[in-house]
């Protein structure tokens, strides 16, 4: 039986599509067609005439659903399905809100957690004419009843390429997956597990060299905490392992191909309590980035404990001092608008923000977003008080702060609206009724 695979791409999930394409094409014989979610429907019509079976997959994040054009396209996707077309969603939203993904968005199945092995097994089952519901890690609705096929084991990152380099496609290399901290607003631990796994140094260097050979000179990395790489226990960084990684990247990629190392900067950050003067000096020795991003998230000790951050605001000040001493510019992330923040909490956070800004830090501002699959999924976000916005506005006007916090506040309110409409079921009365 001939099988075609379509992966629908958006600007917000390009890396996920690259990883899934790499897994499917490196471990099976299926042909992957990468199409735009917003423009690919005509091609889907053509492809389902070409193959006996067509698997249409998409990686969903919750931000996408707050954009009207994306939601409209996802709902139109239901009209394209027929007996030979199967629509499967994965990613953080499908993992956090599988019932909404199935019932409201109309997907045939939702992949829970990591998608590499699940999509490979779905493709194999369709090729052989087997029942996909024997594949572990899937949620579905059968005869009006929810079905979960069981938790599957975690993958080894070394078993799968970080990008489909044979297509000439490169993205930052994922060097770690999972997070031991379980911050209550973040999906990482709840999707990928509390035990962190690492891509080996040899594997990272191999793919960095492939990227450099293809002409991509800036080496960037995806990890929840740049200083957690190689750590066997939370809070105990292995600077020797990180230095071995950076030294081999310099010797085998930077010096050979003229590449540059960016570590502890976009698209990743570092936890403040891991930063030491030793690390800062070591990073300065190997990396080309002139700034490091530190995740503070709040200046209120009460809020830091409530969101399970596992560090104090003093850790942030100490990290800032160590990094600036080594010559880095420091960007510090803060999240505003947790639903139970008091006036005292806001004042503590603003005091920390203004103190850091006066010392030379640049503040990266975010607004709280209630993401499905997290402990705060059902929380009701509140608009920021005007007096908070005025103080933040002064910092932005002076160039000491930036960020998409205003649009993120709108996204939070849109998520509440989608819950009320029954598009998102996690944290909504619809989900509670279904569960009952």
Describe the protein's architecture and organization.
The protein has 436 residues and is an alpha/beta fold. It folds into 3 domains: 146 residues, 3-Layer(aba) Sandwich (Rossmann fold), CATH 3.40.50.2300; 116 residues, Transcription Regulator spoIIAA (2-Layer Sandwich); 147 residues, 2-Layer Sandwich (Transcription Regulator spoIIAA), CATH 3.30.750.200. The chain has 17 helices and 17 strands. The strands form 5 sheets. Strands 2-1-3-4-5-6-7 form a 7-stranded mixed beta sheet, with helices on both faces. Helix 14 links the parallel strand 15 and strand 16. The longest helix has 19 residues. It is globular, with a radius of gyration of 22 Å.
List keywords for this structure.
seven-stranded mixed β-sheet; four-stranded parallel β-sheet; 17 helices; alpha/beta; disordered C terminus; Rossmann fold; 43% helix; 17% strand; Transcription Regulator spoIIAA
In short, what is this structure?
By secondary structure, the protein is of the alpha/beta class. It has helices at 14-27, 41-50, 62-65, 68-80, 91-96, 98-104, 116-128, 188-192, 201-213, 239-257, 277-286, 301-306, 313-325, 343-359, 386-397, 405-421, 429-435, and strands at 3-9, 31-36, 53-59, 85-90, 109-111, 138-142, 145-148, 173-174, 176-177, 197-198, 218-219, 221-222, 260-261, 291-297, 329-336, 362-367, 401-402. It folds into 3 domains: 3-148, Rossmann fold; 172-287, Transcription Regulator spoIIAA (2-Layer Sandwich); 290-436, Transcription Regulator spoIIAA, CATH 3.30.750.200.
């Amino acid at each position: 039986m001939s099988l075609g695979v379509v992966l629908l791409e958006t600007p917000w999930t390009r890396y996920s599509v690259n990883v899934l394409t790499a897994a499917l094409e490196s471990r099976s014989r299926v042909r992957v067609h990468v199409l735009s979610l917003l423009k690919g429907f005509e091609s889907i019509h053509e492809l389902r005439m070409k193959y006996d079976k067509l698997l249409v997959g998409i990686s969903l994040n919750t931000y996408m659903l707050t954009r009207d054009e994306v939601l409209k396209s996802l709902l139109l996707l239901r009209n394209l399905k027929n007996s030979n077309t199967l629509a499967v969603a994965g990613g953080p939203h499908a993992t956090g809100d599988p019932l909404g993904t199935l019932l409201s968005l109309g997907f045939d199945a939702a992949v829970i957690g990591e998608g590499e092995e699940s999509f490979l097994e779905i493709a194999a089952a369709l090729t052989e004419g087997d029942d996909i519901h024997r594949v572990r890690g899937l949620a579905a609705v059968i005869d009006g009843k929810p079905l979960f096929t069981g938790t599957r084991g975690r993958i080894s990152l070394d078993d799968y390429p970080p990008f489909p380099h044979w297509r000439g496609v490169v993205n930052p290399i994922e060097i770690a997956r999972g997070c031991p901290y379980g911050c209550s607003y973040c999906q990482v631990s709840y999707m990928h597990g509390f035990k962190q796994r690492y891509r080996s140094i040899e594997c990272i260097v191999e793919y960095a060299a492939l990227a450099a050979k293809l002409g991509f000179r800036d080496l960037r990395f995806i990890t929840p905490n740049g200083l957690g790489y190689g750590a066997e226990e939370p809070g105990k960084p292995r600077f020797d392992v990180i230095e071995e990684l950076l030294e081999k990247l310099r010797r085998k990629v930077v010096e050979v191909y003229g590449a540059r190392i960016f570590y502890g900067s976009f698209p990743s950050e570092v936890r403040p309590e891991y930063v030491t003067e030793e690390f800062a000096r070591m990073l300065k020795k190997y990396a080309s980035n002139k700034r490091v991003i530190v995740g503070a998230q709040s200046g209120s000790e009460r809020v830091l404990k409530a969101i399970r951050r596992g560090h104090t605001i003093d850790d942030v000040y100490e990290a800032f001092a160590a990094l600036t001493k080594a010559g880095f510019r420091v960007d510090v992330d803060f999240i505003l608008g947790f639903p139970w923040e008091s006036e005292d909490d806001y004042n503590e956070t603003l005091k920390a923000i203004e103190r850091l800004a006066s010392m030379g830090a640049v503040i990266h501002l975010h607004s709280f977003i209630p993401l499905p699959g997290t402990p705060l999924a059902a929380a009701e976000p509140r608009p920021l008080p005007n007096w908070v916005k005025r103080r933040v506005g002064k910092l932005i006007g002076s160039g000491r702060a930036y960020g998409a916090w205003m649009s993120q506040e709108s996204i939070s309110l849109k998520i509440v609206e989608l819950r009320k409409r029954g598009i998102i079921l996690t944290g909504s009365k619809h989900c509670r009724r279904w569960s009952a």
